[in-house]
Amino acid sequence: MEQASRGAVLVTGGGGYIGAHTAKSLAEQGFRPIVFDNLSSGFREAVRWGEFVHGDIRDGRALREAIEAHGVRQVIHFASLIEVGRSVVRPDLFWDVNVRGTASLLDAIRDCGVERLVFSSSAAVYGQPEGLAARDLLAEGLPTAPTSPYGDTKLACERMIEAYCRAFGLSAVALRYFNAAGADPSGLIGEAHDPETHLIPLAIAAGLGFGKPLTVFGQDFPTPDGACLRDYIHVVDLAAAHVAALAVELPAGGFEAVNVGTGHGWSVLEVIDAVERTLGRPVPRSVGARRPGDPPSLIADPSRARDLLGWSPACSSLDQIVRDAARWHSNQRYGRAARAESASGAQDQPRMAEIEGGDRPGVRSAV
Ligand SMILES: NC(=O)c1ccc[n+]([C@@H]2O[C@H](COP(=O)([O-])OP(=O)(O)OC[C@H]3O[C@@H](n4cnc5c(N)ncnc54)[C@H](O)[C@@H]3O)[C@@H](O)[C@H]2O)c1
To answer: What domain of life does the UniProt record list for this protein's source (predicted)?
Structure first.
């Protein structure tokens, strides 16, 4: 039976990785997701819950029409360019889409009387915090000092949102994600970035033989095994944090920035071990130099998320993250890997029947 009693939520970027998982979670919780996406890096096939509006967040008129047509009172804003490396060579694009796009959305929100905004921010706003030892937790009160144009745009958006809240009576929560990973256990949606820059999908692709051997950037960090430590949050837990952020009681004008992570760091080598355990195959790899600006350790202090959102991770064990990601990548339904396999006719060959679950285990096909 269809539930729509909790109202329409505009989900910008809902055709992308985290947005699609959040749209599913919203629908499961009785909301009506309205996905607004220009599909520049997202997929129509990922929009399976709620309605789809093709549009660009820099187009204020299209936003106002979508908000008014659906009676939207809450917005979750994922739409963004996300590749840190590209932001260094094309800062113009990042300021245009991420910052001008967010300004356009905020104007539409103000004009249409939207009450709550949840914004995709990032641990990138912290940059490389000084004086922290490996495994120290990052709390929201730390100074923000991004080290990339991508991080700059996320911080600029946070500040702009906070100012709009104060001036126009909106209330907002900026969620600073650490490393999103994993996939919906159904196997219907998952991570399909192109290019892919995240460790877990790259390690899985290398292990399954459809990606390049993995490069471990730096094994001389001041950490227990010399590799970087990162905090991985299952995308299903991350989606749940957005739904929780819609319900947080905030006064009109209230703004909160909240970390979303587990409070536990895994080293790159521990992640590779987990991928090898799950696949039952080695992950071909080499060791490269450290990348400029890569902090040794980035681990969330998740206390504010627990206290404010009443949220804590339920499925973010490393093994579950890797298992769900491996199931998705071995049966990927959309994205470059699915297209490549479809073109080669390899979709007829079961690749990873041992990763069970999903509704079509072991056989990948393009949608
Ligand atoms: N993936 C992570 O680990 C991570 C970590 C921290 C923060 N984030 C943030 O989370 C959000 C979602 O990330 P993701 O990994 O799902 O990325 P994604 O690329 O899969 O999704 C982004 C979506 O936004 C859409 N989009 C881009 N520009 C648009 C525009 N101008 N108008 C309308 N739609 C547009 C894309 O088509 C895509 O569907 C981003 O804001 C990102 O910065 C992601």
So the answer is: Bacteria
